[in-house]
């Protein structure tokens, strides 16, 4: 079983790489999240999930091991195969997907090709508890810091989470400012 590959990228398309390692070229499917950080001729290291079926043997590679772990959790869900899992991880980062699952935000999840409302509901149902158990962050660092600042000001956690749920901002200050408007 292949779990990790280091090598030079000799061919690249948006979701497909050929990585040369010791004279062998490995065909590796990848998400847009990982692929966007890789250039032709880069020396890279990928965490691999190998899926062997009766008629195929495919490699799925990720720059981040959390993305690989989440991919493996996604393909365990009935109705979500490797292609659909890659589509999800191509459209949403692991952090964004975890946040959507934790907040039960179906509208974000169904933006990925091949994901309908029923599949999104099943995904939320099966992964909501696992997201926390596996230690995936459901908030960006800025959101976390903004939440901590609002809690320090004396607001209750439930109110803080609701206020930050749909708040936009590029930094902690903006997030706190916009959340305070909602909390007032």
From TrEMBL:
Residues 72-91, 107-126 form the Helix-hairpin-helix DNA-binding motif class domain. Signal peptide: none annotated. The keyword DNA repair applies. InterPro entries: DNA_helicase_Holl-junc_RuvA_I, Hlx-hairpin-Hlx_DNA-bd_motif, NA-bd_OB-fold, RuvA, RuvA_2-like, RuvA_C, RuvA_C_sf. Its main location: cytoplasm. Pfam families: HHH_5, RuvA_C, RuvA_N. Homotetramer. Forms an RuvA(8)-RuvB(12)-Holliday junction (HJ) complex. HJ DNA is sandwiched between 2 RuvA tetramers; dsDNA enters through RuvA and exits via RuvB. An RuvB hexamer assembles on each DNA strand where it exits the tetramer. Each RuvB hexamer is contacted by two RuvA subunits (via domain III) on 2 adjacent RuvB subunits; this complex drives branch migration. In the full resolvosome a probable DNA-RuvA(4)-RuvB(12)-RuvC(2) complex forms which resolves the HJ. This is Holliday junction branch migration complex subunit RuvA. The gene is ruvA.
